[in-house]
Amino acid sequence: MKIMRNFENINRIVIKVGTSTLTYENGSLNLRRIEQLARVISDLQNSGKHIVLVSSGAIGVGAQKMGLDHRPTTVKGKQAAAAIGQAQLMEIYDEFFRQYNQLIGQVLLTHMVLTDDKMHQNAINTFQTLLEYNAIPIVNENDTVVTDEIVFGDNDTLSAHIARMVDADLLIMLTDIDGLYDEDPNENLDAKLISEVNVITDKIKQMAGGAGSNRGTGGMQTKLIAAEIAQGSSTKTVIMNGNNPTKIYDLLEGEKIGTYFDC
């Protein structure tokens, strides 16, 4: 069955951006891309939409600022890198969004927000109030205090849970690949992009490989999990390449960009 992309009535959007999209190969921030993303999100806000940005990158940026040539492997190392990197990341976001007269708010979460009813409701209330004030929540996992017991594990999954909490119409996951392929495009040049998915079957799951970048923690598998979570709350999902954030305009106008998961 052919799926029709119709985003005319999309008003509340969660945009997730991964570390590989935000940084260069050496781990330094890609300021041009962040500025483009901030401009697009600001313009969407001006048009009357409400955007929640889920942003990775804190640990990677922190590691680079600490002079490390790799992501820390210990919990305390990751926590230190996250503390340093998150501060710089938010400073950059604030600078760019301020140029477009946009108000932002930092929200750091752990997995406990899903398991503790009071914390879950408090998080929902915070998001709703920020959106009422037309502020753009910028969300990340609270890596500075996280342990294996309370970890989301990746921001793909986090973005899907946030989409459910804010009743988002659409979840857009920006990554370093055009979408879901029937085979690994890095190994098979004849791999074909799957434009639309109606049901996430075992066959679809088998098409997903491991982590796509050594600068991030996610991969196509976690994005499929996120799409399944989003589908549970009737949120449409798109996985698309984030190297040109202005393509979000084309997506919302109905162009067949990335892989679209209907709900």
Automatic annotation (TrEMBL):
Record InterPro entries: AceGlu_kinase-like_sf, Asp/Glu/Uridylate_kinase, G5K_ProB, Glu/AcGlu_kinase, Glu_5kinase, Glu_5kinase/COase_Synthase, Glutamate_5-kinase_CS
Enzyme class per UniProt: transferase
PROSITE patterns hit by this protein: GLUTAMATE_5_KINASE
UniProt keywords, alphabetically: Amino-acid biosynthesis, ATP-binding, Cytoplasm, Kinase, Nucleotide-binding, Proline biosynthesis, Transferase
UniProt-annotated binding residues for ATP: 16, 175-176, 217-223
Alphabetical list of HAMAP family matching this protein: ProB (MF_00456)
Protein name: Glutamate 5-kinase
Originating species: Lactococcus fujiensis JCM 16395
Gene name of this polypeptide: proB
